[in-house]
């Protein structure tokens, strides 16, 4: 292995590979920062460019778009309360709160440092532990997926604001929304109201754009703000390595969660980001700051969703199973280059594989350099007058929604959720629990029903497998530890 790693290090610094990575990262940052244009779309659009390229250069160009796109989703999440990608949805509240306080530079620096740290940790996991992690991922069946989804749904109690009951109501509403379309087991129609565009269900991207982006446009118009950072001075604060190292525990833990979740096929950065955000809040000494501009909240989300980028390549390369939607497109790119994913890839094409894995690490370093150069320009967005910025954002949101399916129905869905995201928070109903339920609802329903089919209707299947039991313990801890902490705090106040 060491010989091949050294070969990959020597090979990855060829000029055409470096140029491919730089172009890929730059394109990914632009695509990821635009609402609705996901990393998946970016990789798919650029895939034809790789047809005539050498395998290593072609794959690293696509990986650059992937990593750059996942990171750049945080840029619009922080500056505009508009997640560029679904994986940055957990960054919205804290990132935008800092931008409104005039600390856009700080939030953007936190995001890029955490993203690169998560990417590097996942890159080294890909390089040194891919086969071992893939074996663990193979242990996941329907019961494990259900318990993972259930664990994710316990996050609702942490992001419900001042009222857990209202958060649960929004969570139930999100689960209801996730059931629209065709039944995943029987194929029956559910809640489509004699329409055809709802047969495929409610797409996550239009719902996400509506709940956060379009609703924020309505808010800015209603408030009549002159700019996003209205009343605050844009501060170009120094962010030192010492400041970054003070968050090292959160970053390390969140990156590892990202690697674990990312290696499980069918999950991805959105789920890992919310799980890490919840864990960071649970273990924080200042949980009350989450949602109001917490540094820990931003780095937990961003290190975790970028921690999945390398991990999703693990099942793709070792087993031929894509870790998420983006790696499904990357899998196609790999096969177009004449490479067959699986164990034989590491024996028959070790030179190419190790160059790609070493290149993944270099991609994250290039991303750091390009993003740091762009941060001063990104931060200036908050000072643009709202009467200029908001119409541009609204147009981008509508275009992004349309681009999902090339359908006006997706635009209608985005506007519908925009109205929900505008009115319900005024009555204390946070939209984040609804988003989490929309994301996790399909996984929870499908895996629950598959599990019960396997067990002939017995719920004991969830208590007979080690990984399933482990996630059940995590669920209980996630629910009862915060309640116990609140109980102790009340007792102290009474004393």
UniProtKB/TrEMBL annotation:
The chain crosses the membrane at residues 12-37, 57-80, 110-133, 145-161, 168-185, 191-214, 256-277, 319-340, 352-371, 377-399, 406-424, 467-485. The keyword Nucleotide-binding does not apply. Keywords: Membrane, Transmembrane, Transmembrane helix. InterPro entries: DUF112_TM (IPR002823). Residues 18-435 form the DUF112 domain. It comes from the Bacteria. The keyword Transmembrane helix applies. This is C4-dicarboxylate ABC transporter permease. It comes from Virgibacillus necropolis.
């Amino acid at each position: 292995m060491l010989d091949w790693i050294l070969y990959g290090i020597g090979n990855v610094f060829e000029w055409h590979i470096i140029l491919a990575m730089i172009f890929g990262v730059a394109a990914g940052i632009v695509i990821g920062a635009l609402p609705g244009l996901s990393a998946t779309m970016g990789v798919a659009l650029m895939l034809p460019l790789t047809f005539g390229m050498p395998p290593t250069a072609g794959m690293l160009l696509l990986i650059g778009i992937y990593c750059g796109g996942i990171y750049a989703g945080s840029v619009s999440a922080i500056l505009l309360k508009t997640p560029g990608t679904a994986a940055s949805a957990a960054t919205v509240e804290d990132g935008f709160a800092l931008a409104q306080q005039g600390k856009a530079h700080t939030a953007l620096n936190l995001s890029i440092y955490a993203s690169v740290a998560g990417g590097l940790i996942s890159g080294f996991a890909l390089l040194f532990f891919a086969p071992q992690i893939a074996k663990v991922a193979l242990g996941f069946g329907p019961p494990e997926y259900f318990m993972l989804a259930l664990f994710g749904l316990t996050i609702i109690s942490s992001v419900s604001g001042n009222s857990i009951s209202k958060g649960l109501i929004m969570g139930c509403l999100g689960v209801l929304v996730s059931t629209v379309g065709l039944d995943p087991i029987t194929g029956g129609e559910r809640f489509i109201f004699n329409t055809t565009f709802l047969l495929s269900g409610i797409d996550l991207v239009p719902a996400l754009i509506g709940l956060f982006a379009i609703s924020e446009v309505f808010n800015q118009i209603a408030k009549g703000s002159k700019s996003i950072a209205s009343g605050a001075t844009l501060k170009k604060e120094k962010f030192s390595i010492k400041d970054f190292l003070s968050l090292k525990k959160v970053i390390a833990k969140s990156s590892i969660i990202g690697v674990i979740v990312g290696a499980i096929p069918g999950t991805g950065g959105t789920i890992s980001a919310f799980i890490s955000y919840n864990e960071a809040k649970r273990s924080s000494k200042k949980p009350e700051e989450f949602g109001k501009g917490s540094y820990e909240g931003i780095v937990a989300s961003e290190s975790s969703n970028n921690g999945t980028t390398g991990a999703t390549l693990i099942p793709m390369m070792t087993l031929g199973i894509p870790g998420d939607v983006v790696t499904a497109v990357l899998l196609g790119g790999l096969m177009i280059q004449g490479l067959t994913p699986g164990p034989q890839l590491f024996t028959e094409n070790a030179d190419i594989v190790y160059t790609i894995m070493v290149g993944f690490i270099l991609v994250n370093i290039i991303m750091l350099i390009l993003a740091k150069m762009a941060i001063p320009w990104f931060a200036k967005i908050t000072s643009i007058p709202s009467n200029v910025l908001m119409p541009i954002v609204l147009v981008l949101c509508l275009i992004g929604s349309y681009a999902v399916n090339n359908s006006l129905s997706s635009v209608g869905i985005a506007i519908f959720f925009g109205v929900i995201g505008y009115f319900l928070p005024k009555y204390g109903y946070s939209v984040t629990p609804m988003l989490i339920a929309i994301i996790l609802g399909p996984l929870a329903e499908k895996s629950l029903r598959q599990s019960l089919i396997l067990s002939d209707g017995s719920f004991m299947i969830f208590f007979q497998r080690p990984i399933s039991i482990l996630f059940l313990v995590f669920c209980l801890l996630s629910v009862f530890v915060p309640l116990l902490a609140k109980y102790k705090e009340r007792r102290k106040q009474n004393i």
